Fold this protein.
Amino acid sequence: MSSIYKLGVIGSPIDHSLSPKIHKIFANDLGLQISYEAIEVKENEFKTAITNLFDQGFMGLNATLPLKEAAYGLADNLSKEAQNCGSVNTLWKEKDTLCADSTDGRGLVKDLESKGIDIGDKNILLLGAGGSAKAVIPSLLKSKPKTLTIANRTPEKAINLANKFTSGQCEVNAAAIDARLNSEPSLIINTTSAGTLKQAIELPENLFSDKVFVYDLSYSFQMTPFNKIAKEAGVKNYCDGLGMLIEQAALSFEIWTSHIPSTDIKREDLL
């Protein structure tokens, strides 16, 4: 095997990806040689691009928006987690077989645990019912919360997702994003991109309390628009998704190299 691991991340847009920096830090800490490129790939070029990149000697690829579902559809061998998510973010070849996994949900849970947030027996409110929500729900449910409520601007999407993930161990509900909540969540996870896209953020009127922990999957050097709203509403404990990004990257890195990197990376080294 080559001593240099040839890796990359594909998506569109891809210019602002922090993945090359993160994987470089992992490799330096472990004394490994890698190349990790950010490669612009549009949805209509996806299949050809994947074939070409692996033919060029790439050993592993991360897929980001808008390619996670296309990557799921192309893979020959899906992990159990990927099957549940319906999308993947990590690709590699075993002989001629294209293998795929989704490390997003496990990355989120690891980051929450590192921040002292125990999901077990908690009431979780998940905002949004798109690809990001689908990618994290299986891992959240595996941690056995008491309830998981999915709130979305289009209630039908939330209902469909709740029906898909209804499990015996945890009550999974759906709600309209602007409806008043029936109970107080202990953990709110924002998977919507409204704030990042500078769209109006619709929220239940009694969403925030000073006891709740707020987690925004978006990340930024400044405070994210969603966390700004939470702070102004009196929330004391909140964080963005940079820790999840690092944790999911570490899980991908381990799949490709069999080495477990340290995820203790300083924010200022990345942003």
Observations:
- The chain is about 35% helix and 20% strand.
- The two ends are 34 Å apart (CA to CA).
- The chain has two domains: 4-102+245-269, 116-240.
